[in-house]
Amino acid sequence: MAPRSEPVTQPTAPWQGGWYRGAHRLPSPNHGRRPEGAVIDLIVVHSISLPPGEYGGQAVQQLFTNRLDWDAHPYFASIRGLEVSAHFFIARDGRLWQFVDVDRRAWHAGRSHYRGRDACNDDSIGIELEGLEGLIFEAAQYRCLLRLCRALAQRHPIRYIAGHEHVAPHRKQDPGPGFDWPWLRHAFAGSGIVFPPVATPLNSRAR
User: Residue 3 domain-assigned?
Assistant: First the structure.
């Protein structure tokens, strides 16, 4: 008698709808529908810390979910009432949060223009790294970012990866010269994904 074949175990799908299974889910109310026919082909990398330069708290998560106590720190008065969101946030230790379904429009890029199109929120995915523009990022953040970008490229026809500084160059400077663009570009060599021309980072922490 032929041996009984064992059922093939399928790996867990990385996505549940537009939610990434590898992220802590923390839904934000700050999102909307994408325009009809929008092709999600751009990833925008940002950096954020609240208060600026302070890491490890919950202020970023609270900002993206409209729960930030505006009186908890003097800096928060300058952003009082701000309603923003990103799809993802990567903490210094590599922990990942997701706030908006990737099929929905998050509020991260603002007034922007890239690859010949305005309003980058319409057809992009925003990823925030915990950090201060111009400073370096942690190896755990790069590893998480790479996994996430690869998963996004499997779900959407990602053609471009750029920084907030590239899509809104007259307003924003993040993630800044401390971000290791050459490392990320090398990780996607041969993929066809297009990166902006950037200088060598101040100090690589990617490996």
Answer: no
